Amino acid sequence: NKYDDAHAVVSLMATKTLHGHGAEAGAFSFELRENNEVIERVSNGDAGVIQFTPLEYSKSDVGTHIYTINEVEGLDDMIFYDNHVETVTVEVAKVNGNLGTTVTYDDDGVVFNNVTLPGSIQITKETDGGGDSDQEFEFEVDLVGVGASIDVGSFVDGIKGLFESSVAFAD
Description:
By secondary structure, the protein is an all-beta fold.
């Protein structure tokens, strides 16, 4: 925050996480509101940092200013969007002849956390040419874009004579 005898500037910030980690830049949008009127809409930056354009106050703005920050729900139906509203209070006052500000956030420091919804995957095994239905097959599932894989174990087709099998793994 900066201030002098005529102006004070405040930068409001928040954090966006997805499963507790900083979200990819530009993945989510947020609104800053005063008196329920949207002042600005921004996307999160690197590591989930949400930064709004600095707010500038003059002598005529001395007093209490109450803002809210909310996430704009996106279109990805596999994400549970954080729909809580954060309240931020900015007190603008004359301090020793200069304009000063005090910013108060709630206890969590303005954090929006999304989680992905549980999903499922179905794997189908087909054998050609009379393969052994008792033979064990192992599957590996790579989660594209997540940088990890999960071991879904192995599947033994216990139904004799069938050469097509499927197994579903739920999250």
